[in-house]
From TrEMBL:
This is Armadillo repeat-containing domain-containing protein. Residues 73-228 form the Armadillo repeat-containing domain. It comes from Caenorhabditis brenneri. It is found in: Membrane; Mitochondrion membrane. It holds the Pfam family Arm_2. The keyword Isomerase does not apply. Gene3D superfamilies: Leucine-rich Repeat Variant. GO terms for cellular component: mitochondrial membrane. It is a single-pass membrane protein. Keywords: Membrane, Mitochondrion, Transmembrane, Transmembrane helix. It comes from the Eukaryota. Its main location: membrane.
């Protein structure tokens, strides 16, 4: 099953699953609505797929489709009981509540954002969710990222300014204690699937060793990393983005282009490393990784090389 988001790049069914948060077993509102459905299959299936980080088998995928249909019914029930609006209304005051209650409320929003019919109501809470990324509590940050991942499936042009502050948080948390942070990477995939968001993304400050995300044995990380770079490069190609068009989004006080994400990926050194990594991955045993790497190389060939130092003198 293939999908397209904003025409930027195709992604496999697995990435749709990233946007359906399965931490609902922790959510009292979800448990309440599940009891209304009273299905003997539902709870065991949720427990089995809970925090599932591996590529799903065909059987699991079919089970997930069934689960998703049940969740849609749950969302209808929650709207019928006006729980959706009430949860959003409680969020501004919840920052003064106990930690466990704040996390549960954020989890409710993350779960409710699974339904596209809830999006307009849920996105009213965007500013408050983004502010939780600055929390001192790790769990609150993780759940806020999950909620933002669900809310960023289809970003409209008029919502870009609300999602823009999310980018530095994602990049700063891409590496946590030497490990790639899947929560940050998932959110970056969704952000890059909105081409109009990509100039903002590329103007942000990069992180050390960025392209090491492609050098991993963890397939669940690798498939997302390749997809993120592919979506970003597809937008650069489709929108004919050069640094001149991205420079206005450079957040460095001195506008140092070498510090930007754009330079880390498409600058001379970064591009050479990216091409080398992508060529190596075209032979990967995972067909999805291999095919995306081939497309990445093809798309990258359409992106003009970064001007070398002193090249501007040729125009004098």
């Amino acid at each position: 099953m293939k999908h397209k988001v904003h025409g930027a790049a195709e992604y496999s069914m697995e990435f749709e699953f990233d946007c359906l948060n399965l931490d609902m077993t922790l959510n009292p509102i979800f448990v309440f609505s599940t009891k209304l459905v009273r299905s003997p299959r539902l709870r065991p299936l949720i427990d089995r797929l809970y925090h599932h980080q591996k590529l799903l088998t065909d059987f699991d995928a079919k089970q997930f489709v069934w689960l998703r249909n049940v969740l849609v019914l749950n969302q209808l029930l929650m709207r019928e009981f006006r729980l959706t609006n009430r949860v959003v209304e409680m969020l501004p005051d919840s920052k003064h509540w106990p930690r466990s209650t704040r996390v549960i409320l954020l989890q409710c929003i993350a779960n409710m954002a699974v339904s596209s019919d809830n999006m307009d109501v849920m996105k009213m809470a965007l500013n408050h969710i983004v502010s939780r990324l600055g929390s001192d509590d790790e769990m609150e940050i993780v759940v806020a990222m999950q909620a933002l991942t669900n809310l960023s499936i289809n970003i409209r042009k008029d919502q870009i300014q609300k999602f823009f502050p999310v980018i530095p948080h994602c990049l700063n948390r891409l590496w946590v204690r030497g490990e790639i942070n899947l929560n940050a990477l998932r959110l970056l995939v969704n952000l890059s699937c909105c081409p109009d968001m990509v100039p903002y993304l590329l103007g942000n400050k990069s992180v050390s060793g960025l392209l090491r995300i492609l050098d991993t044995d963890r397939e669940e990380v690798l498939i997302r990393a390749v997809t993120w770079i592919l979506c970003t490069t597809s937008a650069v190609d489709a929108l004919n983005l050069t640094y001149d068009r991205i420079s206005e989004h450079n957040l460095d006080p001195f506008h140092n282009l070498s510090l930007t994400l754009y330079y880390s990926i498409y600058g001379p050194k970064g591009r050479e490393e990216l091409e080398t990594q992508a060529k190596h991955l075209t032979n990967h045993s995972n067909k999805d990784v291999a095919s995306k790497s081939v497309r990445l190389l093809e798309t990258l060939a359409n992106v003009p090389p970064f001007p070398t130092a002193g090249s501007h003198l040729n125009r004098l």
